[in-house]
Amino acid sequence: MDEVTLSRGEWAAVARELDATSGGEEPTGLRSRIARLLADTPSAWGEEPCTLDLDPSATAVVQAIVRRGRGLPSHPSHARERSAGLAEAEEVLREHQSRTGGPTYRIEHRSADAVVVLGHTTAAHARQADLSEHASRLMATGATGELVLVDEATGEDVARRRLLSATEDDTNVEAG
Description:
about 180 residues
């Protein structure tokens, strides 16, 4: 048996999710055990921790519901699978870009904390346009630092765009 501790409010959410989606597929007695727990715990105790001893299959169902409710994948391994799928898709895009001919460029966001690759482009004529598009999105979120267009073949910085705060002049753009 596993001890599963959630707040009363989370147990109520699990019960609602079971009622709405399970169609009788949950482990035997899970609904009735949660219903008893909710009946025995005053609704004013919404954030009080409540514990149920559950068999492994019931624990798995409850954990999957809670993870979905928190915006996480229903199973921890799904996050790794999704990351692997994204990496594979990025590799396909990189291969496609390298076959299109002409120079390719990497768009980087450089800040005091890190360097993050935002994307790639093969459009040499769109250098400032690519940086402007990314810059406006980043500045809207309050990001600082600079955007740099890097030639993939040479590693040379080709263009830069400083991310300006709302109080700074937005005309500081330089090309390399």
